[in-house]
């Protein structure tokens, strides 16, 4: 099993690399986020702070729109959240080095072309055969979360890994759209920027601008809608 030292290596402050990362608009559309908010989120800077402690993964995210904090248990147990767009239930499972055993199965890759600005999801998740069934294989130190959206039957699989000798935080998001069965995959890359010592619950200081095109788009929606959309991303 992965050691706590390996998981603790995720701890720190991370800033999104927009040049390497995919456009999330298609996934946001599938999650019911309105056009203006999708594009505001896509253009927004994104800063994360991560803390691993006692089998709990704490991740704070901040954009120009809102900040949110997630506390994920890494023992595979089911947790529940509330979808900010419609108030429905979201079931969440998280584990290390494997897909949580009680989570919905890994969705198959889509056969049509990828949306503009997103990675092709025709590259299959690595698998092995177990009792005749294909079982997804994940990196040993990957932190894997599965989000099941009750109102839409959407299922998102988030795989988090470190690359470049710990300098890059890579988030792979495979969203199976319940209404169509297609799978939309995106990859987001963050660069390590150290830690200001305030911890995940202490607030992020600096690094998030309030102006620019994202800010202009954000003004077209209410604060409540902005917060809901950002929280669903």
Brief write-up:
With 233 residues, the protein is of the alpha+beta class.
Question: What topology emerges from the helices and strands here?
Answer:
Blueprint: H1 4-8, E1 12-16, H2 25-30, H3 35-43, E2 47-53, E3 56-62, E4 67-73, E5 79-82, E6 89-96, E7 127-130, E8 133-136, E9 143-149, E10 155-163, E11 168-176, E12 183-192, H4 212-218, H5 223-232
Antiparallel strand pairs: 1-2, 1-12, 2-3, 3-4, 5-6, 6-9, 7-8, 9-10, 10-11, 11-12
Helix pairs in contact: 3-4
Keywords:
233 residues; alpha+beta; 10-stranded antiparallel beta sheet; two-stranded antiparallel ribbon; globular
Structure description:
This protein is 16% helix and 35% strand. Helix 3 packs antiparallel against helix 4 (212-218). The protein is α+β, with helices and mostly antiparallel strands. The strands form two sheets. The protein has a ten-stranded antiparallel beta sheet with strand order 4-3-2-1-12-11-10-9-6-5. Strands 7-8 form a two-stranded antiparallel ribbon.
What is the count of helical runs?
5
Separation of termini?
Answer: 30 Å
Strand order in the sheet with the most strands:
4-3-2-1-12-11-10-9-6-5
User: Got a strand count?
Assistant: 12
Mean pLDDT across every amino acid position: 77
What summary fits the major beta sheet? 10 strands, antiparallel
Q: Which series of helices and strands comes N to C?
A: HEHHEEEEEEEEEEEHH
Unreliable parts: 110-125, 127-135, 196-230
Helix content: 10-25%
> What is the molecular shape?
globular
Structural class, judged by helices and strands? alpha+beta
Kindly provide the radius of gyration, computed on alpha-carbon positions and rounded to a whole number of angstroms: 17 Å
Amount of beta strand: 25-35%
């Amino acid at each position: 099993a992965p050691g706590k030292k390996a998981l603790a290596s995720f701890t720190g402050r991370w800033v999104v690399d927009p040049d390497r990362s995919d456009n999330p608009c298609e996934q946001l559309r599938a999650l019911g986020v309105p056009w203006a908010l999708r594009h505001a989120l896509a253009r927004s800077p994104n800063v994360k702070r991560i803390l691993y402690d006692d089998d709990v993964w704490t991740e704070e995210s901040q954009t120009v729109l809102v900040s949110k904090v997630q506390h994920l248990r890494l023992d595979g147990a089911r947790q529940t959240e509330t979808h900010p767009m419609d108030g429905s239930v979201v079931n969440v499972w998280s584990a290390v080095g494997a897909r949580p055993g009680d989570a919905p199965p890994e969705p198959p890759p889509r056969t049509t072309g990828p949306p503009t600005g997103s990675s092709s999801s025709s590259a299959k998740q690595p698998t092995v055969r177990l009792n005749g069934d294909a079982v997804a294989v994940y990196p040993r130190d990957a932190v894997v979360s599965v989000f099941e959206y009750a109102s839409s039957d959407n299922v998102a699989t988030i795989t988090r890994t470190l690359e470049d000798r710990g300098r890059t935080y890579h988030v792979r998001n495979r969203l199976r759209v319940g209404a169509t069965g297609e799978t939309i995959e995106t990859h987001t890359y963050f660069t390590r920027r150290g830690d200001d010592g305030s911890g995940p619950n202490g607030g992020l200081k600096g690094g998030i601008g309030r102006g620019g095109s994202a800010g202009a788009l954000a003004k077209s929606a209410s604060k409540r809608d902005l917060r809901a959309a950002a929280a669903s991303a």
